[in-house]
Write a structure and sequence with these properties.
By secondary structure, the chain is of the alpha/beta class. It folds into 2 domains: 6-203, P-loop containing nucleotide triphosphate hydrolases (Rossmann fold, 3-Layer(aba) Sandwich); 218-266. 36% of the residues lie in helices and 14% in strands. It has helices at 6-14, 55-63, 107-118, 133-146, 157-162, 169-176, 191-203, 218-234, 241-249, 253-260; strands spanning 32-35, 43-49, 80-86, 89-95, 123-129, 150-155, 180-182. Strands 1-3-4-2-5-6-7 form a 7-stranded mixed sheet, sandwiched between helices. Helix 8 (218-234) packs across helix 9. The N and C termini lie far apart (47 Å). The structure holds guanosine-5'-triphosphate and magnesium ion. The site of guanosine-5'-triphosphate has 23 residues, from helix 2 and helix 5.
Length: 290
């Protein structure tokens, strides 16, 4: 097996970045790692993704904290939070447990799903493994049903290259309708570009139009559109009525409860409603109420 040198990697990655004044690399010095200082944050950013894709590696690189990382899946079983400052804005970054889906069939999935849905992060970064893209896209599509404020961190591009795989990240961004940034987080590659993309989505400079799966099942489409109408009437502030409708049709008890108890109606604030937390913060139930 040929081991790729870091210098090769940086050359390859640099090829994907335009060198100009608006280039995110230009703003590299703008990152200030704030550790556990999350006071007066302007934006909340969630890190979601399949297990073992490098979420905690990205988290540590941006916050300066040392959330545990390792090469086996399932290490992050609770939610960790840390801060950073970029381009004059303060961010709270939330490292979620790795999940293959957001159907809330396990505590991990529930923590991740509830945070993305009820925590209403300003941006959700989905960290995907460039060498196992197909498997990772399932979660991407699910997250994009819940929120349009998504940035894809196409991580482990060094691993992909080692296996002679090259992902056309521009094409992927076009097809998915959201920004895609190639990174090798372990080597600090691409993180400035990631921050610039997050900043653009957080500030509203970039408004994404995520791809939504079309099922082409007339009866389902009819049921969804009828439900969407009712959901929008009862909860006009809910940004993802279609996703809620699909979950209701699937009999998702958590979502049924959120509708029945009016919890969905609480999704009104511009800022996420989670409380201040700290690294190692353990979620017992919903992932945000402590
Ligand atoms: N080669 C390579 N390895 C990476 C990269 N990013 C992360 N890793 C390694 O991948 C392993 C998993 O990284 P983590 O950051 O713990 O992954 P995670 O997504 O937080 O994992 P869970 O919390 O279990 O979901 C670690 O050994 C990292 O050093 C990368 O870009 N390239
Ligand atoms: Mg982790």
């Amino acid at each position: 097996m040929v081991k790729q040198k870091d210098s090769d990697l940086s050359l390859n990655l640099k090829g994907t970045q335009a060198a100009c004044a608006t280039c995110p690399a230009h703003h590299a010095a703008n990152l200030k790692k704030l550790g556990v200082d999350m006071e007066n944050w302007d934006y909340v950013v969630a890190l979601a993704g399949n297990p073992n894709t490098g979420k905690s590696t990205v988290f540590n690189a941006l916050t300066g904290l040392r959330q545990h990382t390792g090469n086996w899946p399932g290490k992050t079983v609770t939610r960790a939070e840390g801060g950073f400052e970029y381009d004059g804005s303060r961010y709270k970054l939330v490292d979620l447990p790795g999940t293959y889906s957001l159907l809330a069939t396990s505590l991990d999935e529930e923590i991740a799903r509830d945070f993305i849905l009820f925590g209403q992060p300003d941006v959700t970064i989905v960290v995907v493994d460039a060498s196992r893209l197909e498997r990772n896209l399932n979660l991407v599509l699910q997250v994009m049903e819940i929120t349009s404020r998504v940035v894809i961190c196409l991580n482990l591009v060094d691993e992909a290259e080692r296996h002679n795989m090259q992902v056309d990240h521009r094409r992927l961004a076009r097809d998915l309708g959201v920004p895609v940034v190639p990174t090798a987080a372990r080597y600090n590659q691409g993180l400035e570009e990631l921050l610039a993309a997050v900043n653009e989505v957080a500030t509203g400079k970039v408004q994404s139009k995520p791809y939504h799966v079309k099922y082409n099942l007339p009866k389902l489409d009819l049921a969804v559109s009828q439900l969407v109408e009712q959901i929008q009437e009862a909860f006009p502030q809910v940004p993802n009525a279609r996703w809620v409708a699909l979950r209701l049709l699937d009999g998702d008890e958590r979502i049924i409860r959120a509708v029945e108890e009016g919890e969905l109606g609480d999704l009104t604030s511009d800022q996420p409603s989670l409380e201040e937390g700290s690294v190692g913060h353990v979620s017992q139930k919903s992932g945000f109420a402590q």
